[in-house]
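Dear Dr. H.,

I hope your travels went smoothly. While you were away I took the liberty of generating a structure for the chain from your last submission, since the lab meeting agenda had it listed for discussion. I wanted you to have the full record in hand beforehand rather than looking at slides cold. The sequence, exactly as received, is reproduced here:
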Amino acid sequence: MLEDKLLFWKFKHGDKDALRQIYEKYKDNMRTIACSLLRDTHTAEDVLHDVFVSFAESVEQVEIKTSLKNYLITCLLNRIHDLFRKKESRSVDLDQVCSTSSNSACPDKLLIGSERSQLLADALAAIPFEQREVIMLHLKGGMKLKEIAMLQNTSVSTVQGRYRYGLKKLRAILNREAVR
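The corresponding predicted structure, in token form, is as follows:
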């Protein structure tokens, strides 16, 4: 948190390397969230790029009230919501969906990991967007449910319900897949 404040201060006062450090620190986390919500790696990359370009262009007006990470994730979600509102979001083949990679050089383990990632991506796509968003923000974004509630301008109990019901639906979908 203190490191983020220092990086933001440096960037706001003209240190271009600070922007690179901020980008490097948060790009993977933000890309994972964007890919999970959009299910399109190219659009996710575009949104991520747009967020950082906008952040860089408006740094003089930016006031961060929570944390830099939460601010950037909020910007990312706003861009994603804009895409959905404009109906510009498009589905792609599951081969193009972001997936986790394995450090293993063993082909059978890579295949199993890829299949599991595919099943999880399919299951996430099958649950309502609001639930998927809460799950991804909490698990991948590292945000607390209270922070998500503030971000979504809703009650903590609503966010807790979305999280709980989303996980329940994911379990049900994944358990059906395991039985097949």
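Two observations you may find useful: Residues 105-180 form a domain with the Arc Repressor Mutant, subunit A fold (CATH 1.10.10.10). The mean pLDDT is 80.

With kind regards,
E. W.
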